[in-house]
Recover the amino acids of this structure.
């Protein structure tokens, strides 16, 4: 298990289209209420499945909403005293860590880790200005017990823009 072997992490899952990446993510996403529980890990996901959800504004707003949800009680959310400002990768790192600590404090299961999944990054469109890629932190920026999983189609099936953004030097800091 990559979460057990690493203190923090940025991971990429690439598969052909239609092979079940989104289904896999929905099974892990605690707010979908469908499935698999990862030991000691809270799981939240953002799904990119159309032009609107590939925009940076949609990502920021839906990520804020998703992180505030407690899966055991759909009617209860995390209080808004946590900063939700996400304007940079550093901001996202801080927001994810704050929610990880809040889930640990408030959760019934006392999960120490947070896995945030961004599903369908191959759907991110090249636009003027910033993109979701600009908010994805490098592995070394992440705080301990915070993990990000990116899902994407194989390189043959993605745009040149996404290929460039997924280069090892660009995202993974290798």
């Amino acid at each position: 298990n990559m979460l057990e072997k690493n203190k923090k992490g940025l991971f990429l899952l690439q598969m052909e289209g239609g092979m079940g990446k989104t289904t896999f993510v929905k099974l892990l996403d605690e707010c979908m209420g469908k499935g698999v529980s990862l030991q000691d890990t809270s799981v939240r996901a953002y799904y990119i499945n159309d032009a609107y959800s590939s925009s940076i504004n949609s990502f920021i707003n839906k990520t804020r909403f998703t992180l505030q949800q407690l899966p055991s009680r759909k009617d209860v959310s995390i209080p808004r005293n946590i900063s939700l400002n996400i304007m940079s990768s550093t901001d996202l790192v801080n927001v994810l860590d704050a929610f990880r600590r809040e889930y640990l404090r408030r959760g019934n299961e006392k999960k120490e880790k947070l896995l945030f999944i961004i599903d369908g990054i191959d759907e991110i469109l090249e636009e003027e200005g910033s993109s979701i890629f600009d908010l994805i932190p490098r592995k070394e920026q992440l705080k301990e017990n915070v993990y990000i999983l990116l899902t994407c189609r194989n390189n043959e099936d993605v745009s040149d823009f996404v290929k460039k953004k997924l280069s090892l030097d660009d995202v993974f800091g290798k």
User: Anything to note?
Assistant: The mean pLDDT is 86. Strands lie at 9-15, 41-47, 69-70, 73-77, 113-119, 146-153. The first strand starts at residue 9 and ends at 15.
